[in-house]
């Protein structure tokens, strides 16, 4: 009996702690324009305007970019001073060899 009450209570209490999001036609691009676009512009990454062979993989502090225009691996760090960002960014760029590019493509 206790387990049945627990299950019923759990089922009905899920709605109490759930977050509600109102999606609009622009919601999917919010993250891009607020976070990714400024970084892409700061790192001077390519912006393909047409369908091309293009691959970009990113994480919090690096970008891997493969295309006919650019084959590079970028690492970047934002400078902080006493817990606050100063606005300066340190960027290290590594060019990829043809062998590395082919190995990545075969993954």
Give a quick precis of the structure:
With 107 residues, this protein is of the alpha+beta class.
Mean pLDDT: 77
Please, how many helices? 3
Number of distinct beta strands = 4
Strand composition percent: 25-35%
Helix content: 25-40%
Largest sheet: 4 strands, antiparallel
Rg, rounded, reads: 22 Å
Secondary-structure content class: alpha+beta
Shape: extended
Helix/strand order = HHEEEEH
> In order across it, which strands form the biggest sheet?
1-2-3-4
What are the low-pLDDT stretches, counting only 5+ consecutive residues below 50? none
Write up what this structure looks like.
A hairpin with a 3-residue loop joins strand 1 (54-58) and strand 2 (62-67). The termini are far apart. The protein has helices spanning 2-17, 30-42, 98-105, and strands at 54-58, 62-67, 71-81, 84-95. The mean pLDDT is 77. Strands 1-2-3-4 form a 4-stranded antiparallel β-sheet, with no helix packed on it. With 107 residues, the protein is α+β, with helices and mostly antiparallel strands.
Give the helix/strand layout.
Layout: H1 2-17, H2 30-42, E1 54-58, E2 62-67, E3 71-81, E4 84-95, H3 98-105
Short key terms for the protein model shown above:
alpha+beta; four-stranded antiparallel β-sheet; single chain; 3 helices; 107 residues
């Amino acid at each position: 009996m206790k387990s049945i009450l627990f299950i019923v209570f759990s089922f009905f209490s899920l709605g109490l702690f759930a977050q509600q999001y109102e999606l609009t036609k622009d919601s999917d691009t919010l993250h891009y324009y607020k976070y990714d676009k400024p970084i892409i512009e700061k790192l001077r990454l390519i912006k393909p305007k047409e369908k091309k062979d293009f691959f970009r993989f990113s994480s919090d502090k690096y970008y891997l970019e493969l295309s006919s225009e650019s084959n590079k691996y970028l690492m970047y760090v934002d400078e902080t001073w006493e817990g606050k960002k100063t606005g300066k960014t340190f960027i290290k760029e590594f060019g990829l060899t043809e062998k590395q590019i082919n190995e990545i493509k075969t993954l």
